[in-house]
Amino acid sequence: MLHNTPIDSRKANNSIFGIRLDSMPMQALLNRVEELVKGKERGYITFCNVHMLMEAEKSTYFKTVLKNSTFNLTDGMPLVKILQFKGNKNASRTAGPDTMPLLLELSEKNNWSIALYGGSEKTLSNLKNWVKDKYPSLKIACAISPPFRKLSNQEEKDYIQKINESGTQLLFVGLGCPKQEIWMSKHVEQISALMFGVGGAFSMVTGEIARAPVFMQKLSLEWLYRFSKEPSRLFYRYVWLNFKFLTLLIWRSIR
């Protein structure tokens, strides 16, 4: 397993609930990705938010998944604000939909192949067309839309074989949290690529799912925009989970 995290990210002011968070400038991240790919390193990178930390609170196994990652990037302004409050003044948000296009650009520049795993057939078709339009010389080595159910061992084996035989360097996984992080952790020793759990980025970069206006993103209100679009589905994640997170944070700070 790869553990190439920056030394500073292991300090107490870069962790929340015992989970290491790796907040770094975007260019520093791209430089590290380039080093890892050129070194033919395996590993997986998560985009961590409140939802993910609360999943780790419920599951010791999932907490281990996050602890074993290559990087846990800070995707979620509450986490960024907490790290800044704890003394990490340079902490900043690194969101999957913002990072994925930059990684595609980097892949095109270095003549790397990419692979896509997750999403519906329609979403993958839209994404492939978008990639071909934006990055015409970038090779999509393979794109897999797995069925929305538990896969058999043979299906898992066949998909992994297809990914490896494609010769991809970067694998983007869009299965949603915590499924994608568990999947990457489970297969990290079998897949010869650097993996990124990008969640809903497959649909967001193509415009299939609209992102918040830029001014709302800058004001850390992207969550409010998404909640206004799907209040029933996102109530648990954006209201209830955030309330539990803040309550737990305050309680542990007092204790």
TrEMBL record:
NCBIfam families: wecG_tagA_cpsF (TIGR00696)
Classification via CDD domains: Glyco_transf_WecG_TagA
Keyword S-adenosyl-L-methionine: no
Record carries keyword Glycosyltransferase: yes
Span of the signal peptide: none
Keyword annotations from UniProtKB, A to Z: Glycosyltransferase, Transferase
InterPro entries recorded: WecG_TagA_CpsF
Top-level lineage group: Bacteria
Protein name: WecB/TagA/CpsF family glycosyltransferase
GO MF annotation, one: hexosyltransferase activity
